[in-house]
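dude i think i finally got it to work??
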Amino acid sequence: MHKEYIVSNFYKFLKLNNIDEIKIKLKNKLEGLNIKGSFLLSNEGVNGSFSVKIEDFKRTVSIINSVFEKKFKFKSQFYHSHVFLRLKIKIKKEIVTIGKKSVQPSSVSGKYLSPEEWEQTINCENVIVIDTRNHYESSIGSFVSSIKVNSNNFREFPSWFDKNKNKFEKKKIAMFCTGGIRCEKATNYVIKSGFKDVFQLEGGIINYLQKTRSTKKLWEGDCFVFDERVSINKALEKGKYNQCYACRYPLTKQEMTSKLYIEGVSCPKCFDLKSDKQKRKYKERQKQINIAKIKGIKHIGC
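look at this
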């Protein structure tokens, strides 16, 4: 299948003033492009993920850099279609939510490790490797021998670390996430908790898979991504998973044949966890989505 699009993401922690003006300016400048994705703005910085035609990528990058008056590092892959449904630009309290005002990654964060340095480091003794992602992400793939936080959301990381930090005393701590942004805050929290030898995988899993494309990887499984692909494999191609849009959990084709799987309503992982009221709500939402698809329009709940 011919790849006509670029899927890209970027982030930066920087002090932003006049966020409302920046939002309007960014929206106006991107409006003429066939671009879809999500841009989160806050006083602490910007976090963006988008898909755009290959021929429009350089122009998109130029627009983003000019609006923020910064040069960002973009992590990109090729794909055959858009992976987002629409363009969203939102103002948030945090560009990645940890819920701790004391966490300020612009002041200090873990030492960056290139993919090559990462492999050397996590193979050493006395190194603890922490997967900072949520349980539904780490369930389908992770680095060998990593300790999984297995959280429901990133807000749970501080309490998880506080409960387990005695296990990490006198150890080097190496942390990773999908694109790097969560590790900026997680390593800041760990350093402020008194740990000194703290490292993070530069650019996250996606950068690692790109840079180690032709080598044997220490990564096993798929990498969950927050777009319509659901997951990507080691070759950065769409992975083997679909998604339950009731609980957001990645599903195999076999799980989708279960009697407990109802599109948009439930799956074997959440059927017993969702109330009848929730299922009725999800069923109605899915009904509206299906009607919208037939009419050829995008449903706001998609």
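The domain at 111-221 is CATH 3.40.250.10 (Oxidized Rhodanese; domain 1).
im so relieved honestly
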